[in-house]
Amino acid sequence: QVQLVESGGGSVQAGGSLKLSCVVSGYIVRPCAMAWYRQAPGKDRELVSTIGSDGTTTYADSVKGRFTISQNNAKNTLALQMNSLKTEDTAVYYCLASFRIIQTGRCESQYWGQGTQVTVSS
């Protein structure tokens, strides 16, 4: 029973920083990929950043140079360091873990955290 729990959200002024954490438990095999998504009120959920099992990372253009994704395998955690925050970063942030489906070989068995609120004020 895979579970993901996010923490570290809160309120911060524009230009400030926050670090989000995601603790993953209940897995037998390691995820083939992990990611952070976010969703603002009335908006579609968008991909913020990904990290593969080989350590390869991707970032949305809107956060590139400001956010950093990382893993700590020993602690079973995923982190998102957010610097130079802007009001448009305000959203609920969700942690995602993906596991490979043996029958198809695709990395698409997804588990989501409950989300953590990030509010950036001007």
Main features:
single chain; 122 residues; mainly beta; 7-stranded mixed β-sheet; 4-stranded antiparallel β-sheet; 0% helix; 57% strand; elongated
Structure write-up:
With 122 residues, the protein is mostly beta strands. It is 0% helix and 57% strand. The chain is built from no helices and eleven strands. It has strands at residues 3-7, 10-13, 18-25, 33-39, 46-52, 57-59, 67-72, 77-82, 91-101, 106-112, 116-121. Strands 2, 4, 5, 6, 9, 10 and 11 form a seven-stranded mixed β-sheet that branches. The chain is elongated and about 50 Å long. The mean pLDDT is 95.
What's the total helix number? 0
Apparent shape: elongated
Give a short account of the largest sheet. Answer: 7 strands, mixed
Q: Could you tell me the radius of gyration in angstroms?
A: 14 Å
**Structural class of the helix and strand makeup?**
mainly beta
Number of strands: 11
Straight-line N-to-C gap: 41 Å
The unreliable regions are none
Strand content: over 45%
SSE order, one letter for each helix or strand = EEEEEEEEEEE
